[in-house]
Amino acid sequence: MSPHRITKKEMKQDKFVTYSLQVSEWIQKHLNEVLMAAGGVVLVAAVLFFIFSSQAKRERKAAELLGKANLALQSGNMGGAVDDLQAVVNRYSSTESAGQATFYLAYAYFYAKDYVQAQSLFEKYVQKYKEDPLLSQSAQAGIADCHMQTGKPVMAAENFLRAVSLGPQTFLAPQYLLRAASAYLQADQNDKARETLHRLIDEYPDSREVHRAKVDLAQIAG
Fold first, then answer.
1. Last residue of a domain, one of 90, 117, 144
2. How many domains, the chain?
3. What global pTM score does this model have?
4. Shared-domain flag, residues 113 and 165
5. Which of 5-19, 67-81, 85-99 is the least confident region?
6. Taking the C-alpha atoms of 114, 119, 122 and 126 in order, what is their torsion angle to the nearest 10 degrees?
7. Which of 179, 126, 136, 173 has the alpha carbon at shortest distance from 157?
8. Domain stop point among 117, 144, 166
9. Distance of CA 69 to the CA centre of its chain
10. What tens digit of pLDDT does each residue of 121-178 get?
11. Among the residues of 75-114, which ranges form H helices?
């Protein structure tokens, strides 16, 4: 009777059995380490779940306060709006709503003529919150408006130009160029005003601000 030949399948099975035994022996020798590692994974998972759960609650609360503040603004309740916006900014600074709250709070202070506080918040938005390009551009223009209100037209013009650079393709860009030129004129820097107006006409020939830019150029020419 010829000896039994071991097939490839049986060889694979033998290798699998041998490997399984080796793994089993290793686990038995290192059982404590295995349990500690598994416990560590569970602990990390629990911590992550707690963090994400807490953040979700913070996001929800911040969004609720932001919505409440918007309703207050629409109804003319500026005091109530400021309180809610300030709460979002102070307590929920890591949430998505914090950026919008900072922007709206800046304008609330601006309309209350607290230009120092308004400028500080506009700058905070530009530096920290950049998820909305249009709001970033508007916040930069808000800084310019604060400079205008505090008698610094040159700084205002420079910040209007920065606002343009943040969104050169937006519908706001030609408006900010026109306002930059106006600020330069107020500062008696006619050359810079003329340069800015020509830029507006050249880069945004179809904008509605072009007519006003041509009128201003004619006035500068005298």
1. 117
2. 2
3. 0.72
4. no
5. 5-19
6. -170
7. 179
8. 117
9. 19
10. 999 999 998 778 899 999 999 999 999 999 999 999 999 999 999 999 999 999 999 9
11. 78-91, 96-111
Residues 97 and 171 in one domain: no
3-class secondary structure, 3 = coil
Greatest pairwise CA separation for the chain in angstroms = 121
Tell me the CA distances in angstroms from 102 to 16, 97, 115, one per residue in order.
63, 9, 14
Residue 172 located in a structural domain: yes
Strands (DSSP E) found in the chain: none
Tell me, yes or no, whether 76 and 112 share the same domain.
yes
| Sequence-ordered list of residues with C-beta below 8 angstroms from that of 101, at least 6 positions apart, any chain | 62, 65, 66, 69, 85, 88, 89, 92
**135-149 burial, b for 16+ CB within 10 Å, e for fewer?**
bbbbbbbbbbbbbbe
Print the domain residue range for 198: 132-222
Residue 112, φ and ψ in degrees, nearest 5: -85, 0
Cβ neighbours of 99 (radius 10 Å): 23
Assess whether 143 and 176 both reside in one domain. Answer: yes
- 75 and 155 both lie in a single domain: no
Cβ 78 vs Cβ 108: under 8 Å: yes
- Count CA within 13 A, CB hemisphere, residue 107: 15
Q: Residue 127 falls within a domain, yes or no?
A: no
CA separation for the pair 161, 17 (Å, rounded): 74
